[in-house]
Specification:
With about 375 residues, this protein is of the alpha/beta class. It contains 15 helices and 16 strands. The protein folds into 2 domains: about 240 residues, 3-Layer(aba) Sandwich (Alkaline Phosphatase, subunit A); about 110 residues, Domain 2, Phosphonoacetate Hydrolase (Gyrase A, domain 2, 2-Layer Sandwich). It has a 7-stranded mixed beta sheet with strand order 2-16-8-1-7-5-6, with helices on both faces. Helix 3 packs parallel to helix 15 and helix 8 runs parallel beside helix 10. The longest helix has 20 residues.
Length: about 375
């Protein structure tokens, strides 16, 4: 019996429109010989939440990562989620080792924060932002985090590792600087996807029997208006702070402006009034009290503030000096960026088995038991 091997590639912001607009013959061949499924990302549609969901095969209600930023309700102190202290569920690497499925696992990410979150159970863990010297010697110097080339470097690192070490379980997640800056039809977007596709083709040629899944953590759209829901509520006599779920250190990507936010009320008895004010605010599409948000979106109830808001297609939330201002940014986080592809090649499952991007991890882990 042949040894089963799996590669999961999460193309950050690699939504349908970027694939459709690009010259990607190798990815299309994988879809033609396997399947292409229209699937859902986890909401909020941001990187931390969705990569952890895929890599654990669970929703945030189980793995605990609901944002890029965590606020301690007891102290009011916030911090970036950049390591595994907040992770409540084992990763596919850890389970692959404990079930004896894999004797070698590998994780490849662009950002160090994601490496620190997911590296448990890995034998090889590489962040293109600060890679081990072996990879610089083998592939060449890494590229700036805010560049088109860094994702190409990352995929070459995957290719090098597959050729040298042949790990059974490999997870790779790129970064979305290109998509934050360029629409699908832009020359830079075309160039970015074409080179990713070329390297993927070489990976398949090296081992045509490996099980491969290509998906995305979210999409990306143009935004024209920014709101601060905390200021809006405070102005209406309901003191509050709103934390955009996209908030992280990589502000050159998105300026900490995203399509979802958690709202922390000074008076937690004011939830009903806050919900009504926000529902009446132009640009805010959906508003939920925490318990409703946890149930509807499978979120961890203790890590989502008091109110959860989702923006309309052209709006983002941020921590602003005013309640509202015009902006021009490409970003994500709302329901509108939550539709993603899943491409499966050499898969034991069919397209209809996949409803969410996390089902890639879920079905794989279920098959180990």
């Amino acid at each position: 019996m042949k040894r089963r091997k799996i590669l999961i590639l999460c193309i950050d912001a690699g939504s349908h429109d970027y694939l459709a607009a690009s010259d990607i013959p190798n990815i299309r061949k994988l879809a033609d010989e396997g399947f292409y499924q229209d699937a859902n990302a986890v909401i909020p549609s941001v990187t931390n939440v969705n990569n952890v969901s895929i890599a654990t095969g669970t929703f945030p209600e189980k793995h605990g990562i609901t944002s890029n930023y965590y606020v301690d309700r007891k102290t009011g102190i916030g911090e970036f989620i950049e390591d595994n202290r907040f992770l409540l569920t084992p990763t596919l690497f850890e389970i692959s080792k404990t079930t004896k499925f894999a004797d070698k696992t590998a994780l490849f990410v662009t950002k160090q924060k994601l490496l620190r979150m997911l590296e448990g159970g890995t034998d090889i863990a590489v962040a293109a932002e600060a890679p081990p010297s072996e990879y610089i010697d083998a592939i060449g110097p890494t590229e700036p985090i805010y560049s088109i080339e860094i994702n190409w470097w990352l995929l070459r690192a995957v290719q090098y590792t597959l050729r040298k070490y042949d790990p059974q379980v490999v997870y790779c997640s790129t970064t979305d600087w290109v998509q934050h800056k360029f629409a699908p039809e832009a020359e830079m977007s075309q160039k970015h996807m074409a080179e990713l596709d070329r390297i993927i083709g070489e990976i398949v040629d090296d081992d045509s029997e490996r099980e491969i899944y290509i998906t995305a953590d979210h999409g990306m759209l143009d935004k024209l208006v920014a709101l601060d829901p905390g200021r809006i509520l405070t102005q209406e006599g309901i003191p509050a702070d709103a934390i955009p779920i996209i908030k992280d250190r990589y502000v050159a990507h998105h300026g900490n402006l995203g399509g979802a936010a958690y709202i922390f009320l000074k008076n937690r008895d004011a939830v009903e009034a806050a919900v009504q004010v926000l529902l009446d605010t132009s640009g805010i599409e959906e508003v939920y009290a925490a318990e409703d948000a946890a149930r509807i979106f499978h979120l961890h109830p203790d890590r989502i503030g008091d109110v959860f808001v989702l923006a309309d297609k052209g709006t983002v939330f941020g921590e602003l000096e005013v309640t509202s201002e015009p902006i021009s940014v490409r970003s994500h986080g709302s329901r509108h960026e939550s539709y993603v592809p899943i491409i499966g090649y050499n898969s034991p499952w069919s397209a209809s088995d996949f409803e969410y991007n996390l089902d890639v991890g879920r079905l794989f882990l279920e098959s180990l038991h």
